Amino acid sequence: MDSENNYIVQALGLGKQVASPEGTLIILDAINLAIKKGESLAIIGISGSGKSTLLGLLAGLDRPTTGKVILNGTDLNQLDEDGRALIRNQVVGFVFQSFHLLPNLTALENTALPLELAGAEQADAMAMQKLQAVGLAERIHHYPNQLSGGEQQRVAIARAFAGNPQILFADEPTGNLDHKTAQRIIDLLFDLNKENSTTLIMVTHDHAIADHCDRQVVMAGGQLTENL
What we know:
This protein is of the alpha/beta class. Helix content is 34%, strand content 29%. It is built from seven helices and ten strands. The strands form two sheets. The chain has a six-stranded mixed beta sheet with strand order 6-7-8-3-9-10. Helix 3 crosses helix 4, helix 3 (107-117) runs parallel beside helix 5 (149-162) and helix 5 runs parallel beside helix 6 (179-196).
């Protein structure tokens, strides 16, 4: 039996409800999930099944209605927003479907920004190293509108890995890319994840991408089942 110390993320009785004109809407219902250090996990399911809501709760971006999340040994319910933000800055990286790059910053500046906010002394050098790792050494001074979709997502991946996070959360990271570009991005994401010994938690509706992960769980009707 695994010790709890082997788990870097745990959801215990996690629930999320929101008010709607029709009454209370249950988005997540009594979710229990434990993710080991270094594991890659795919959360799959149809649109609207609660995948992104679950990811946001696991990452401390939102608060659950019931239950709790233990992230890297810390009960997120015990923290205020500033405390959760500090935990995220210390141990978490994010890759989103829509890149979330700042349009007025270059690739290098976008990658270095979270490092600078965290007080890193060698922010530009660290950012440059990650941009080289994703094959963008020649594009560091380009702005997002001068980059292709695949290149923008590579910048986003470099930014996510720049702070050497223990956990990487990815929400439909290839959703805005064509199939060929998406495959290159997924290969890059998993290669970097392996090199950095990061725990990867990915939301996707693409079963071919999910098959890259060590384990898959399925969201349906706000509940979670193991995909065996």
